[in-house]
């Protein structure tokens, strides 16, 4: 047993981080957020999407013979964690999961959206939609970088996933399930990759809070020297590292219940860390200019993806035997 | 322990209620939140109506043009106006609740005559220039400096979190008139000035919040001349001048908000019954717990107001206890709203979604929860100061 | 409106506090707790009970013509708050409520217990039992000063109280309800008096934590000068004062729903304050010698009285219209 | 990220499992918790069996009489013994997990030969004399003093929270050999001594906890003579000597407990299904959330053990992160147990009620949560030290 990252995994992690820093750094992020108009409709950066495709982000788990990178779930989780850190926008999970079945998805040529319960992210930008989005109406999305549509009548309990199935397949073997080209196994994988994004966000807001606490001075000293702020930051780290263990563990086992648990803890870490980060930033955290609200809004958005807290808790309870 | 109102108080309530019923239907439609001149016009017109009906400056002393109402009457006023859906104090906030009372308490006769009547009539709008980018929780570290030059102060610096700056006529401004040194702690050497917002060198820039709105502004001051006659209180005594009024809080600060939260809570229960979430025991009981919470906060308000009434308007430290609990409860309310809405919580078309965003400031603005806990620990519980 | 205590109420509060300090001070409390044997069965101090009766503790709300003191619910709440502060043992609530109906209860001659759901406190010590305690079996009570019996088959949901009735009656007018001589109105009054006891306990543990934090030194200074400890204490006070407003308010209005809310908040304040008090005391708080565990165990015991958290929350939800 | 065991590790597990299956049925019944001599006999007999089977000192280095097992093997050992319901380390705890490793790392050859074999064989029991009534979180402020007198130290003072003191042969004792002064900070001037518990002047008094048990004791030392040869490490260097081992924690500290908590959680679910509480969504989902929690804590354990393995046994600060989360989760577990039990949670006849009481110490013992957060903030996050 060696749960730590292998050298290859570490290199992958660093590679994705560098790619995103270069192609979607802070300036690019702010440009996307601060577009013209009070509520600019974000547009998908197709060139970036192709670049992600070229870098293997979408085809990561496809066999090499199919033009993929031939890696596994742990590697996909590391890549999505970086995407979460960078607040990378777009229907990343759907496109990644469609890589084996929807032509052009793996290379980033085809943008794929999916219907999850009553919501669809990035519908207008998508070339291909998994699930039935008929009659979808646009929503004034709380996250400025995630356009949303609502599919009327699609509400109700989601997720046929129960029990403790294990998902290990690459995208090639899934994607043909019951719910409009998005099967139960894919739903579980989507939950795991979403959890990885949340983990990345939780880690990023922890770092941001710590950096601000070191620099910001009040009462003649850095606010990070006050126990109240110290302890907020410490609890952020605890949440992040617990979620990390859960997400990485779930990536290794691929167990559906463990993945539900990972999503639950990662959702909690992302949302609460963003709020604590905001608290540490004080008034500055309440401004549009600070990035912390983008993390919070995205974290809220991802938390609504299947399984939401309530759904995950029920799944985890049912598995207690 | 008496929660019933006196006959006099009930009469006051009945009169107010009748006036509100007669007046509110005649109000013009509310302006768009982004239309600042429209908002100013709306808010000041409402203030003028209050003035004409004898409700302006209700809790101000008579010698300041007010009606010397008791904290209980003020509570009734705030409760009834909120229940009736009357306009908020809006752009009149700083004038009525802070700058005005400060001038009333510390200004000269000339200053009171010049500034108070226009506030009460809704003729002039004030904003507040206290916080700075580097002086938030630690207000005493403010750096905007004022140098005396003849009969004026020359002011340079910047302020932040200034509401209604775009439409204000005056700004109650705190400036540093003596540099901080070993002998001069931060809160000495501060002076209170009334800054005319149209003075040359004043630049206002809207500040966008995470809710996407521009309720606040930044203000930049570049060698702005402020007549020395606009100074309230002594030079270097501005900290005390300000604190006198900041602490002149008679437990009524959040009356309207608590009433509004209780209404929101009932609306949430109705929405949950409508969309099926009511059948979720977690959601339903969360609403039940919030019922206990906001009922208690209403009682706590009545408690603090009673304390203030007996103590003659002198502040207790109940304000910090209340704010700590209320800030948290309000955030909880909107988190619960999100559970009621389900995926709809991501839709800004729901007021509760935008209110949820705004509520994020509650544990930060006007003293973070961390600062409030220090106040409670040090001043109420008497725990030893940290080093 | 003047919500503050009247001078008479203040005098009553002080009188009860002094009485209890004199008759059930710390030494008396510890003697009751540290009796012989590992788990001594506490016995009711009949002399003290009579003295409480003489002082009007039980007959507080009875009309003067019936030998009572002729006071109201607010005064009863103040007296029970003091009992909670002092950790006064015995079936105080049941005896107080029986004062108008069970002969000798008002004077403290008759000790009255009551069946609440499946539990009965102080059954063996009681001269009179409200409700059907047939077949009751002793329980190894977690609270060393509250002997418990369990009534088999009496489980299930309690409390026929719904809606928002107002209880204002003195003991004389109630006590003849449905459930074995303990009607719905009495159940509501019992909840209020229990909440008052919890409030007293919450206030007492706040004081104890503050005192210890001022005296105990670590790292060369009082632990109360550390923000982490300061903030624990501050939150204790916030819980206490919120519960106080709720309990006093409910005492004035007598509204059944408001009383349920007061119980919910007072239960929470008593339990969480006891735990925070324990945390502030560190290792010393974990000893039998410290009083804090007695507050926690009693708070747990009272929290199980009707309405328990779940029941109160449902009542409060149902009232939201 | 590899959670599978190597072939060698699987073989180790299989062998251990077989041995446990063969051995456990032959154990005598567990003694009454209040029967200290019985407990000692039971615990030491079990240790002797482990010794004979080659499992004693599994993770100790070979030159200390151990088997040099990797952290993973140690984790497997703790996991399997807990799963099999084997006896706990009990009275052997301090010897095997602290005093022994300290002597192994810092003792002379003679000291190691004298003290280590009896620990491994279960012949001698150690207890720990570190905490004092006035030195808890701030251990460096300990006051028990030792004065050199010829070839012995004369020790006077008192210790607290000493487990198994009633039946211990030795105590690893920290004493002050140089007074604190401006030049000598608290953690300098401390010396590590092996105190024979039968030495004249040693008095042990059971300390009753809030759970009603006497798992701990107070120890009073009245001019007790301890041979200087019983000093491990240099005089005044005891702080370092102790910390070397205190931090020699390879992520395995709570393995058995986490396994036990997961078992308890399943038992709670079963109980809830049995008594109807399962139909309460709040209770059911609370159990579901705890499932996520303890699964994650198990993964976090594996993570920390992997870190320790790679780093060669040198500590990370993952221990504080784990302990903060675990302490809270464990208290949550028993609070949830109380919800499953309903009024039954007041009955000490339920193990969960007594376990709930014991769990109250988790956020205090071995470093309060407040201290742990300081450690995480200062050492892991690098936040500036407070003043």
TrEMBL record, chains A, C:
The keyword Metal-binding does not apply. Residues 192-299 form the Acyl-CoA dehydrogenase/oxidase C-terminal domain. InterPro entries: AcylCo_DH-like_C, AcylCo_DH/oxidase_C, AcylCoA_DH/ox_N, AcylCoA_DH/ox_N_sf, AcylCoA_DH/oxidase_NM_dom_sf. Pfam families: Acyl-CoA_dh_1, Acyl-CoA_dh_N. SUPFAM superfamilies: Acyl-CoA dehydrogenase C-terminal domain-like, Acyl-CoA dehydrogenase NM domain-like. Residues 6-99 form the Acyl-CoA dehydrogenase/oxidase N-terminal domain. Keywords: FAD, Flavoprotein, Oxidoreductase. Coiled coil: none annotated. The keyword DNA-binding does not apply. Transmembrane segments: none annotated. Its cofactor is FAD. Belongs to the acyl-CoA dehydrogenase family. This is Acyl-CoA dehydrogenase. It comes from Streptomyces chryseus.
Automatic annotation (TrEMBL), chains B, D:
SUPFAM superfamilies: Acyl-CoA dehydrogenase C-terminal domain-like (SSF47203), Acyl-CoA dehydrogenase NM domain-like (SSF56645). InterPro entries: Acyl-CoA_Oxase/DH_mid-dom, Acyl-CoA_Oxase/DH_mid-dom_sf, AcylCo_DH-like_C, AcylCo_DH/oxidase_C, AcylCoA_DH/ox_N, AcylCoA_DH/ox_N_sf, AcylCoA_DH/oxidase_NM_dom_sf, Mycobact_Acyl-CoA_DH. Keywords: FAD, Flavoprotein, Oxidoreductase. Signal peptide: none annotated. Gene3D superfamilies: Acyl-CoA dehydrogenase/oxidase, N-terminal domain, Butyryl-CoA Dehydrogenase, subunit A, domain 2, Butyryl-CoA Dehydrogenase, subunit A, domain 3. The keyword Zinc does not apply. Residues 127-223 form the Acyl-CoA oxidase/dehydrogenase middle domain. Residues 6-123 form the Acyl-CoA dehydrogenase/oxidase N-terminal domain. It comes from the Bacteria. Pfam families: Acyl-CoA_dh_1, Acyl-CoA_dh_M, Acyl-CoA_dh_N. Residues 236-381 form the Acyl-CoA dehydrogenase/oxidase C-terminal domain. Its cofactor is FAD. Belongs to the acyl-CoA dehydrogenase family. PANTHER family: ACYL-COA DEHYDROGENASE, ACYL-COA DEHYDROGENASE FADE29. This is Acyl-CoA dehydrogenase FadE. It comes from Streptomyces chryseus. The lineage of its organism: Bacteria, Bacillati, Actinomycetota, Actinomycetes, Kitasatosporales.
């Amino acid at each position: 047993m060696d749960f730590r990252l292998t050298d290859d995994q570490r290199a992958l992690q660093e590679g994705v981080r560098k790619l995103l820093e270069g192609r979607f750094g802070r300036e690019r992020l702010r440009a996307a957020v601060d577009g013209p108009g009070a509520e600019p409709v974000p547009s998908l950066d197709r060139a970036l999407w192709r670049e992600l495709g070229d870098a293997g982000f979408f085809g990561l788990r496809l066999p090499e013979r199919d033009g993929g990178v031939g890696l596994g779930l742990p590697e996909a989780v590391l890549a999505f964690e970086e995407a979460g850190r960078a607040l990378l926008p777009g229907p990343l999970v759907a496109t990644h999961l469609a890589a084996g079945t929807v032509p052009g998805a793996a290379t980033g040529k085809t943008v794929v959206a999916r219907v999850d319960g009553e919501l669809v992210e990035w519908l207008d930008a998508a070339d291909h939609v998994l699930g039935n989005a008929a009659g979808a109406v646009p929503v004034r999305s709380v996250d400025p970088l995630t356009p949303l549509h609502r599919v009327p009548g699609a509400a109700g309990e989601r997720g046929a996933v129960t029990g403790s199935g294990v998902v290990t397949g690459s995208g090639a073997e899934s994607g043909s399930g019951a719910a409009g080209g998005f099967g139960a196994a894919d739903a579980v994988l989507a939950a795991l990759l979403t959890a990885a994004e949340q983990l990345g966000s939780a880690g990023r807001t922890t770092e941001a809070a710590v950096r601000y606490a070191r620099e910001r001075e009040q009462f003649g000293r850095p606010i990070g020297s006050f126990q109240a702020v110290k302890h907020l930051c410490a609890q952020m780290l605890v949440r992040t590292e617990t979620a990390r263990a859960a997400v990485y563990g779930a990536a290794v086992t691929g167990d559906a219940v463990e993945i539900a648990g990972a999503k639950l803890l990662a959702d909690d870490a992302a949302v609460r860390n963003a709020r604590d980060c905001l608290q540490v930033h004080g008034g500055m955290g309440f401004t549009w200019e600070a990035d912390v609200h983008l993390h919070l809004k995205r974290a809220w958005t991802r938390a609504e993806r299947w399984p939401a807290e309530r759904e995950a808790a029920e799944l985890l309870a049912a598995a207690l035997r | 322990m008496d929660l019933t109102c006196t006959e006099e108080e009930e009469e006051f309530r009945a009169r107010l209620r009748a006036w509100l019923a007669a007046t509110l239907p005649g109000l013009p439609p509310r302006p768009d939140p982004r239309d600042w001149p429209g908002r100013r016009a709306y808010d000041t017109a409402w203030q003028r109506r209050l003035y004409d009906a004898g409700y302006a400056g209700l809790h101000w002393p008579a010698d300041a043009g007010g009606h010397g109402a008791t904290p209980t009457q003020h509570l009734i006023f705030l409760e009834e106006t909120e229940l009736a859906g009357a306009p908020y104090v809006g752009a009149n906030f700083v004038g009525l609740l802070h700058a005005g009372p400060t001038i009333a308490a510390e200004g000269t006769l000339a200053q009171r005559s010049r500034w108070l009547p226009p506030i009460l009539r809704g003729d002039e709008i004030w904003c507040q220039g206290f916080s700075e980018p580097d002086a938030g929780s630690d207000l005493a570290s403010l750096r905007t400096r004022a140098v005396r030059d003849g009969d004026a102060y020359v002011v340079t610096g910047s302020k932040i979190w200034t509401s209604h700056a775009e439409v204000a006529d005056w700004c109650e401004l705190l400036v540093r008139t003596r540099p901080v040194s070993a002998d001069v702690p931060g809160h000495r050497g501060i002076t209170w000035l009334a800054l005319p917002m149209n003075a040359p060198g004043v630049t206002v820039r809207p500040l966008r919040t995470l809710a996407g709105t521009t309720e606040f502004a930044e203000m930049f001051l570049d060698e702005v001349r402020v007549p020395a006659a606009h100074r309230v209180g002594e030079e270097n005594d501005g900290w005390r001048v300000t604190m006198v009024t900041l602490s002149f809080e008679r437990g009524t600060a959040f009356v309207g908000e608590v009433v509004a939260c209780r209404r929101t809570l009932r609306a949430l229960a109705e929405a949950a019954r409508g969309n099926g979430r009511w059948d979720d025991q977690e959601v339903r009981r969360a609403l039940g717990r919030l019922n206990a919470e906001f009922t208690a906060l209403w009682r706590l308000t009545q408690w603090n107001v009673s304390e203030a009434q007996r103590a003659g308007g002198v502040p207790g430290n109940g304000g910090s206890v209340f704010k700590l609990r209320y800030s948290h409860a309000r955030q909880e309310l909107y988190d619960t709203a999100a559970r009621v809405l389900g995926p709809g919580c991501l839709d800004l078309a729901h007021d509760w979604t935008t209110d949820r965003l705004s509520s994020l400031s509650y544990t930060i603005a006007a003293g973070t929860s961390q600062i409030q806990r220090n106040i409670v620990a040090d001043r109420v519980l008497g725990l030893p100061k940290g080093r």
